[in-house]
Predict the structure of DUF6879 domain-containing protein.
Amino acid sequence: MSQNALSFDELFQAARHSAVHLEMRDQYAVGDEADDFNTWLATGRRDVDPASEYWAPWTDMISRAVARGVVVRRARIVSEPVTDYIRYEHAGTVVNVAAGEQVRWLPRRRAVDLMLPGADLWLFDGTQVLFNHFTGDGNWADPDMELRTEPVIVKQCSEAFDAVWDRAIPHDQYEIH
C-alpha cells in the first residue's frame, strides 16, 4: 500500500457495518504463525485460548468491531482432502468464532462455476477491498496488500464473496476430509 493508504488495523477500526474476508489458498506460510503451526504439526495441540499472547490482538480487534455493530464474516475455499495447514486453521477457528466472527467453509469443487478474484481479500463496509498478496509458497509478497476502491472492483468482490458465503458450510457443520 502507498504511504498515504490506511493500514489493515486502521481499515478494520474504521469499519462501521461489515468486514468480510475471503481466503482461497490451501497453504499459508506467514511468519507470525510459524511457531504455532509447527507446534501443532509436532503435537496436534493448537493454542485455542482467546486471551493468549498469540490470539489476544486478533480477538480484541474482532470483539471491539462486533461490539460496535460490525458483522465480521470469513469464508474459506478449500481443496479436499484438506492440507495440514487447513486442518490447523480448522482447529483454531473456534477462537475466531468465540471472538464474534462468522466462519464458513466451501469445498473447492463446489466453487468451480463461481467467478472469483485472483487474490485473498478483505472487504470493508462494501466500499474498500484490501487484496492480500502471497508468494507461491504462501508467505507475504512485497507489497503484501493492495487497497482498491473502484466501484466496479468492489462490486465484483462483494458479489464473489456473497456467492461463496451462500454455498459455504458453517464452521460448526463442516467436517474435515
About this structure: The CA atoms of residues 51 and 57 lie 9 Å apart. Helices lie at 8-14, 34-43, 56-67, 84-99, 151-167.
